[in-house]
Specification:
With about 350 residues, the protein is of the alpha+beta class. The chain has two domains: about 160 residues, 3-Layer(aba) Sandwich (Aminopeptidase); about 170 residues, 3-Layer(aba) Sandwich (Aminopeptidase). It contains eleven helices and 13 strands. Strands 1, 2, 3, 4, 5, 6, 7, 8, 9, 10, 11, 12 and 13 form a 13-stranded mixed sheet that branches. The chain is elongated, with a radius of gyration of 21 Å.
Length: about 350
Amino acid sequence: MSGKRIDVIVPGELGADDRKIWREIRAASGAPANPFMDPAFTVAVGRVRPRARVAVLREEAGPVGYFPHERAFAGRGRAIGLGVSDSQGAVLRPGIRPDARALLRACGLSSWEFDNLEAGQALFVPHAVEELASPVVDLGAGFERYAESLRRASPGFLRQTLAKERRLARQVGEVRFVYDEPDPGALRALMRWKSAQYRRTGRRDRFAQAWITRLVDILARSEDPGCRGVLSVLYAAGRPVAAHFGLRSRTVLSWWFPAYDPAYGKYSPGLLLHLRMLEAAAADGIGLVDLGSGPARYKESFKTRDLTVHEGAVVCAGVGGAVHRLGREPVRAARRFVRERPGLANGAARTLEGLGRLRVR
Protein backbone atom coordinates (compact mmCIF):
# COMPACT_ATOMS: atom_id res chain seq x y z
CA MET A 1 0.00 0.00 0.00
CA SER A 2 3.05 2.21 -0.32
CA GLY A 3 2.33 5.75 -1.47
CA LYS A 4 -1.32 5.59 -0.50
CA ARG A 5 -3.30 6.41 2.59
CA ILE A 6 -6.39 4.49 3.53
CA ASP A 7 -9.10 5.97 5.71
CA VAL A 8 -11.87 3.67 6.93
CA ILE A 9 -15.11 5.56 7.51
CA VAL A 10 -18.80 4.81 8.03
CA PRO A 11 -20.85 5.22 4.83
CA GLY A 12 -22.70 8.23 6.22
CA GLU A 13 -19.41 10.15 6.22
CA LEU A 14 -19.16 10.01 2.43
CA GLY A 15 -19.50 13.61 1.32
CA ALA A 16 -20.80 15.09 -1.92
CA ASP A 17 -17.26 15.14 -3.36
CA ASP A 18 -16.78 11.47 -2.53
CA ARG A 19 -20.04 10.50 -4.25
CA LYS A 20 -19.06 12.54 -7.30
CA ILE A 21 -15.59 10.96 -7.53
CA TRP A 22 -17.01 7.47 -6.89
CA ARG A 23 -19.44 7.91 -9.79
CA GLU A 24 -16.78 9.36 -12.07
CA ILE A 25 -14.58 6.31 -11.45
CA ARG A 26 -17.51 3.99 -12.17
CA ALA A 27 -18.40 5.83 -15.38
CA ALA A 28 -14.78 5.69 -16.58
CA SER A 29 -14.61 1.94 -15.92
CA GLY A 30 -17.09 1.16 -18.68
CA ALA A 31 -18.97 -1.25 -16.39
CA PRO A 32 -22.79 -1.14 -16.39
CA ALA A 33 -24.17 1.53 -14.03
CA ASN A 34 -25.52 -1.12 -11.68
CA PRO A 35 -27.31 0.61 -8.75
CA PHE A 36 -25.82 -1.86 -6.26
CA MET A 37 -22.41 -0.39 -7.10
CA ASP A 38 -23.54 3.18 -6.53
CA PRO A 39 -22.52 5.08 -3.35
CA ALA A 40 -26.20 5.64 -2.53
CA PHE A 41 -26.67 1.89 -2.02
CA THR A 42 -23.68 1.74 0.34
CA VAL A 43 -25.00 4.74 2.30
CA ALA A 44 -28.45 3.11 2.58
CA VAL A 45 -26.92 -0.14 3.85
CA GLY A 46 -24.91 1.90 6.36
CA ARG A 47 -28.15 3.17 7.86
CA VAL A 48 -29.34 -0.36 8.69
CA ARG A 49 -26.04 -2.23 9.20
CA PRO A 50 -23.96 -0.62 11.98
CA ARG A 51 -20.80 -2.49 10.95
CA ALA A 52 -20.83 -1.18 7.38
CA ARG A 53 -17.64 0.66 6.42
CA VAL A 54 -15.94 2.23 3.39
CA ALA A 55 -12.18 2.23 2.88
CA VAL A 56 -11.19 5.40 1.03
CA LEU A 57 -7.89 5.04 -0.86
CA ARG A 58 -6.13 8.38 -1.19
CA GLU A 59 -3.15 9.79 -3.03
CA GLU A 60 -1.86 13.35 -2.85
CA ALA A 61 -4.34 14.52 -5.49
CA GLY A 62 -7.29 13.03 -3.62
CA PRO A 63 -9.35 9.81 -3.47
CA VAL A 64 -8.49 7.13 -6.02
CA GLY A 65 -10.71 4.33 -4.80
CA TYR A 66 -13.47 3.12 -2.52
CA PHE A 67 -13.95 -0.31 -0.96
CA PRO A 68 -17.36 -0.78 0.74
CA HIS A 69 -17.61 -3.70 3.15
CA GLU A 70 -19.10 -4.98 6.38
CA ARG A 71 -17.14 -6.22 9.37
CA ALA A 72 -18.18 -9.02 11.72
CA PHE A 73 -16.66 -11.20 14.45
CA ALA A 74 -12.90 -11.81 14.31
CA GLY A 75 -12.52 -9.33 11.47
CA ARG A 76 -14.56 -11.44 9.07
CA GLY A 77 -15.58 -9.14 6.24
CA ARG A 78 -18.32 -9.39 3.67
CA ALA A 79 -19.52 -7.48 0.65
CA ILE A 80 -21.77 -4.56 1.49
CA GLY A 81 -25.34 -5.85 1.78
CA LEU A 82 -24.25 -9.46 1.24
CA GLY A 83 -27.33 -11.61 0.80
CA VAL A 84 -29.30 -8.95 -1.08
CA SER A 85 -26.66 -7.17 -3.17
CA ASP A 86 -26.45 -8.42 -6.75
CA SER A 87 -23.25 -6.63 -7.78
CA GLN A 88 -20.19 -6.28 -5.55
CA GLY A 89 -16.60 -5.11 -5.56
CA ALA A 90 -14.25 -2.16 -5.12
CA VAL A 91 -14.36 1.10 -7.08
CA LEU A 92 -10.80 1.92 -8.21
CA ARG A 93 -9.30 4.34 -10.69
CA PRO A 94 -7.52 2.68 -13.65
CA GLY A 95 -4.03 1.63 -12.66
CA ILE A 96 -4.87 1.46 -8.93
CA ARG A 97 -4.49 -2.15 -7.86
CA PRO A 98 -3.37 -2.69 -4.28
CA ASP A 99 -2.62 -6.15 -2.95
CA ALA A 100 -5.97 -7.61 -1.91
CA ARG A 101 -4.77 -8.99 1.43
CA ALA A 102 -2.88 -5.78 2.24
CA LEU A 103 -6.12 -3.85 1.61
CA LEU A 104 -7.99 -6.16 3.97
CA ARG A 105 -5.38 -5.75 6.69
CA ALA A 106 -5.58 -1.97 6.33
CA CYS A 107 -9.32 -2.29 6.96
CA GLY A 108 -8.82 -4.54 9.99
CA LEU A 109 -10.28 -7.53 8.12
CA SER A 110 -9.13 -11.12 8.21
CA SER A 111 -11.32 -12.15 5.26
CA TRP A 112 -13.76 -10.66 2.75
CA GLU A 113 -16.58 -12.77 1.32
CA PHE A 114 -18.47 -12.10 -1.90
CA ASP A 115 -21.20 -13.94 -3.82
CA ASN A 116 -21.92 -11.57 -6.74
CA LEU A 117 -18.56 -10.04 -7.55
CA GLU A 118 -18.90 -8.21 -10.86
CA ALA A 119 -16.77 -9.16 -13.83
CA GLY A 120 -13.61 -7.10 -14.28
CA GLN A 121 -12.78 -6.87 -10.57
CA ALA A 122 -9.15 -7.84 -11.17
CA LEU A 123 -8.26 -7.27 -7.51
CA PHE A 124 -10.58 -10.02 -6.26
CA VAL A 125 -11.34 -12.37 -9.18
CA PRO A 126 -8.19 -14.47 -8.48
CA HIS A 127 -9.80 -15.35 -5.12
CA ALA A 128 -13.07 -16.57 -6.65
CA VAL A 129 -13.98 -20.23 -6.33
CA GLU A 130 -16.99 -20.23 -8.63
CA GLU A 131 -18.17 -18.39 -11.73
CA LEU A 132 -21.91 -17.81 -12.09
CA ALA A 133 -24.11 -16.66 -14.98
CA SER A 134 -26.16 -13.53 -14.38
CA PRO A 135 -28.82 -13.15 -17.11
CA VAL A 136 -29.58 -9.70 -18.52
CA VAL A 137 -32.03 -8.18 -20.98
CA ASP A 138 -30.60 -5.68 -23.47
CA LEU A 139 -33.07 -2.90 -24.25
CA GLY A 140 -30.68 -0.42 -25.85
CA ALA A 141 -32.35 -0.79 -29.25
CA GLY A 142 -35.82 -0.29 -27.77
CA PHE A 143 -38.59 -2.61 -26.65
CA GLU A 144 -40.01 -3.31 -30.12
CA ARG A 145 -36.66 -4.62 -31.35
CA TYR A 146 -36.38 -6.76 -28.19
CA ALA A 147 -39.95 -8.09 -28.55
CA GLU A 148 -39.23 -9.03 -32.15
CA SER A 149 -36.16 -11.02 -31.09
CA LEU A 150 -38.26 -12.68 -28.38
CA ARG A 151 -40.87 -13.69 -30.99
CA ARG A 152 -38.18 -15.21 -33.20
CA ALA A 153 -36.49 -17.09 -30.35
CA SER A 154 -39.65 -18.28 -28.60
CA PRO A 155 -42.85 -17.43 -30.49
CA GLY A 156 -45.00 -19.72 -28.35
CA PHE A 157 -43.85 -18.14 -25.09
CA LEU A 158 -44.77 -14.58 -26.05
CA ARG A 159 -48.07 -15.62 -27.67
CA GLN A 160 -49.15 -17.65 -24.63
CA THR A 161 -48.17 -14.90 -22.19
CA LEU A 162 -50.24 -12.29 -24.04
CA ALA A 163 -53.16 -14.73 -24.28
CA LYS A 164 -53.10 -15.12 -20.50
CA GLU A 165 -53.25 -11.34 -20.11
CA ARG A 166 -56.39 -11.24 -22.24
CA ARG A 167 -57.89 -14.10 -20.24
CA LEU A 168 -57.10 -12.30 -16.96
CA ALA A 169 -58.92 -9.20 -18.22
CA ARG A 170 -61.89 -11.27 -19.40
CA GLN A 171 -62.30 -13.42 -16.31
CA VAL A 172 -61.18 -11.07 -13.51
CA GLY A 173 -61.43 -7.50 -14.75
CA GLU A 174 -59.55 -4.66 -16.37
CA VAL A 175 -55.77 -5.19 -16.38
CA ARG A 176 -53.70 -2.13 -15.51
CA PHE A 177 -49.94 -1.76 -15.09
CA VAL A 178 -48.11 0.92 -13.09
CA TYR A 179 -44.37 1.12 -13.66
CA ASP A 180 -43.42 3.33 -10.70
CA GLU A 181 -46.12 2.92 -8.06
CA PRO A 182 -45.85 5.22 -5.01
CA ASP A 183 -48.52 3.40 -2.96
CA PRO A 184 -46.85 1.89 0.17
CA GLY A 185 -49.77 -0.53 0.47
CA ALA A 186 -48.71 -2.21 -2.76
CA LEU A 187 -45.18 -2.59 -1.40
CA ARG A 188 -46.54 -4.22 1.77
CA ALA A 189 -48.59 -6.63 -0.37
CA LEU A 190 -45.44 -7.56 -2.29
CA MET A 191 -43.58 -8.24 0.96
CA ARG A 192 -46.40 -10.49 2.21
CA TRP A 193 -46.45 -12.47 -1.03
CA LYS A 194 -42.67 -12.79 -1.04
CA SER A 195 -42.51 -13.91 2.60
CA ALA A 196 -45.16 -16.55 1.89
CA GLN A 197 -43.20 -17.69 -1.17
CA TYR A 198 -40.00 -18.02 0.87
CA ARG A 199 -41.81 -20.15 3.46
CA ARG A 200 -43.65 -22.17 0.83
CA THR A 201 -40.41 -23.08 -0.94
CA GLY A 202 -38.51 -23.80 2.27
CA ARG A 203 -36.17 -20.82 1.94
CA ARG A 204 -35.17 -18.31 4.57
CA ASP A 205 -37.62 -15.41 4.69
CA ARG A 206 -35.56 -12.33 3.93
CA PHE A 207 -38.34 -10.01 5.03
CA ALA A 208 -38.26 -11.60 8.48
CA GLN A 209 -34.89 -9.83 8.84
CA ALA A 210 -35.58 -6.32 10.06
CA TRP A 211 -32.55 -4.78 8.34
CA ILE A 212 -33.70 -5.94 4.90
CA THR A 213 -37.22 -4.57 5.39
CA ARG A 214 -35.76 -1.26 6.59
CA LEU A 215 -33.36 -1.15 3.64
CA VAL A 216 -36.22 -1.63 1.18
CA ASP A 217 -38.21 1.12 2.90
CA ILE A 218 -35.25 3.53 2.68
CA LEU A 219 -34.62 2.80 -1.00
CA ALA A 220 -38.33 3.01 -1.81
CA ARG A 221 -38.26 6.62 -0.59
CA SER A 222 -34.95 7.49 -2.28
CA GLU A 223 -34.91 10.03 -5.09
CA ASP A 224 -31.20 9.60 -5.87
CA PRO A 225 -30.87 9.01 -9.64
CA GLY A 226 -27.90 6.71 -9.09
CA CYS A 227 -29.83 4.26 -6.93
CA ARG A 228 -33.50 4.42 -6.12
CA GLY A 229 -36.30 1.93 -5.72
CA VAL A 230 -38.92 1.27 -8.38
CA LEU A 231 -42.12 -0.54 -7.44
CA SER A 232 -43.99 -1.94 -10.45
CA VAL A 233 -47.49 -3.37 -9.99
CA LEU A 234 -49.91 -5.30 -12.19
CA TYR A 235 -53.56 -4.78 -11.26
CA ALA A 236 -56.67 -6.72 -12.28
CA ALA A 237 -60.07 -5.26 -11.46
CA GLY A 238 -58.28 -2.67 -9.31
CA ARG A 239 -56.55 -5.32 -7.18
CA PRO A 240 -52.77 -5.94 -7.20
CA VAL A 241 -52.00 -9.40 -8.55
CA ALA A 242 -48.23 -9.14 -9.11
CA ALA A 243 -45.48 -6.72 -8.14
CA HIS A 244 -41.76 -6.19 -8.32
CA PHE A 245 -39.48 -3.95 -6.29
CA GLY A 246 -36.10 -3.28 -7.88
CA LEU A 247 -33.33 -0.72 -7.98
CA ARG A 248 -32.46 1.53 -10.87
CA SER A 249 -29.79 3.94 -11.97
CA ARG A 250 -30.23 6.17 -15.00
CA THR A 251 -29.59 3.28 -17.41
CA VAL A 252 -29.75 -0.02 -15.47
CA LEU A 253 -32.68 -1.67 -13.70
CA SER A 254 -31.77 -4.45 -11.27
CA TRP A 255 -34.35 -7.19 -10.76
CA TRP A 256 -34.69 -7.72 -7.00
CA PHE A 257 -37.94 -8.77 -5.28
CA PRO A 258 -40.68 -10.14 -7.61
CA ALA A 259 -43.83 -11.84 -6.29
CA TYR A 260 -47.48 -12.44 -7.16
CA ASP A 261 -50.74 -13.40 -5.52
CA PRO A 262 -50.98 -17.23 -5.81
CA ALA A 263 -54.76 -16.93 -6.17
CA TYR A 264 -54.11 -15.69 -9.72
CA GLY A 265 -51.31 -18.12 -10.51
CA LYS A 266 -53.09 -19.71 -13.50
CA TYR A 267 -52.75 -16.41 -15.37
CA SER A 268 -48.95 -16.25 -14.87
CA PRO A 269 -49.18 -12.67 -13.53
CA GLY A 270 -45.44 -12.59 -12.80
CA LEU A 271 -44.63 -13.11 -16.48
CA LEU A 272 -47.20 -10.48 -17.51
CA LEU A 273 -45.69 -8.03 -15.04
CA HIS A 274 -42.19 -8.76 -16.32
CA LEU A 275 -43.15 -8.14 -19.93
CA ARG A 276 -44.87 -4.83 -19.13
CA MET A 277 -41.93 -3.78 -16.96
CA LEU A 278 -39.48 -4.31 -19.78
CA GLU A 279 -41.62 -2.21 -22.11
CA ALA A 280 -41.96 0.64 -19.57
CA ALA A 281 -38.28 0.49 -18.59
CA ALA A 282 -37.15 0.84 -22.20
CA ALA A 283 -39.41 3.88 -22.60
CA ASP A 284 -37.87 5.32 -19.41
CA GLY A 285 -34.29 5.21 -20.70
CA ILE A 286 -33.24 1.85 -19.26
CA GLY A 287 -30.82 0.08 -21.58
CA LEU A 288 -30.09 -2.98 -19.45
CA VAL A 289 -32.20 -5.04 -17.04
CA ASP A 290 -30.04 -7.20 -14.79
CA LEU A 291 -32.00 -10.28 -13.71
CA GLY A 292 -29.39 -11.38 -11.17
CA SER A 293 -27.61 -14.70 -10.75
CA GLY A 294 -29.41 -17.87 -9.82
CA PRO A 295 -31.42 -20.31 -11.94
CA ALA A 296 -35.03 -19.52 -12.88
CA ARG A 297 -36.97 -20.63 -15.93
CA TYR A 298 -38.45 -17.18 -16.55
CA LYS A 299 -34.96 -15.66 -16.71
CA GLU A 300 -34.01 -18.06 -19.48
CA SER A 301 -37.17 -17.06 -21.36
CA PHE A 302 -36.56 -13.31 -21.16
CA LYS A 303 -32.77 -12.93 -21.24
CA THR A 304 -30.73 -11.80 -24.23
CA ARG A 305 -27.35 -12.83 -22.82
CA ASP A 306 -25.43 -13.55 -19.59
CA LEU A 307 -22.99 -11.50 -17.59
CA THR A 308 -20.52 -13.21 -15.29
CA VAL A 309 -20.34 -12.83 -11.53
CA HIS A 310 -18.10 -14.60 -9.04
CA GLU A 311 -18.37 -16.20 -5.64
CA GLY A 312 -15.51 -16.64 -3.20
CA ALA A 313 -13.47 -14.92 -0.52
CA VAL A 314 -10.13 -13.28 0.11
CA VAL A 315 -8.67 -14.86 3.24
CA CYS A 316 -5.67 -13.67 5.22
CA ALA A 317 -3.42 -15.91 7.27
CA GLY A 318 -4.18 -16.05 10.98
CA VAL A 319 -6.95 -16.87 13.42
CA GLY A 320 -9.60 -14.77 11.69
CA GLY A 321 -8.92 -16.42 8.35
CA ALA A 322 -9.17 -19.85 9.96
CA VAL A 323 -12.51 -18.88 11.51
CA HIS A 324 -13.79 -17.92 8.06
CA ARG A 325 -12.65 -21.19 6.49
CA LEU A 326 -14.26 -23.28 9.23
CA GLY A 327 -17.51 -21.35 9.09
CA ARG A 328 -18.04 -20.79 5.37
CA GLU A 329 -16.05 -23.12 3.15
CA PRO A 330 -17.95 -26.36 4.02
CA VAL A 331 -21.27 -24.60 3.32
CA ARG A 332 -20.06 -23.18 0.01
CA ALA A 333 -18.64 -26.56 -1.03
CA ALA A 334 -21.95 -28.26 -0.25
CA ARG A 335 -23.91 -25.70 -2.28
CA ARG A 336 -21.52 -26.07 -5.19
CA PHE A 337 -21.82 -29.87 -5.04
CA VAL A 338 -25.62 -29.64 -5.32
CA ARG A 339 -25.60 -26.95 -8.05
CA GLU A 340 -23.30 -29.03 -10.24
CA ARG A 341 -25.75 -31.97 -10.12
CA PRO A 342 -29.10 -30.83 -11.61
CA GLY A 343 -30.95 -34.00 -10.56
CA LEU A 344 -29.83 -33.60 -6.98
CA ALA A 345 -30.61 -29.86 -7.06
CA ASN A 346 -34.16 -30.51 -8.31
CA GLY A 347 -34.70 -33.15 -5.66
CA ALA A 348 -33.45 -30.80 -2.94
CA ALA A 349 -35.77 -28.05 -4.20
CA ARG A 350 -38.77 -30.40 -4.09
CA THR A 351 -37.86 -31.49 -0.56
CA LEU A 352 -37.53 -27.89 0.64
CA GLU A 353 -40.85 -26.99 -0.96
CA GLY A 354 -42.55 -29.93 0.76
CA LEU A 355 -41.13 -28.91 4.13
CA GLY A 356 -42.19 -25.33 3.43
CA ARG A 357 -45.80 -26.38 2.80
CA LEU A 358 -45.82 -28.25 6.10
CA ARG A 359 -44.56 -25.14 7.92
CA VAL A 360 -47.18 -22.93 6.26
CA ARG A 361 -49.93 -25.27 7.49
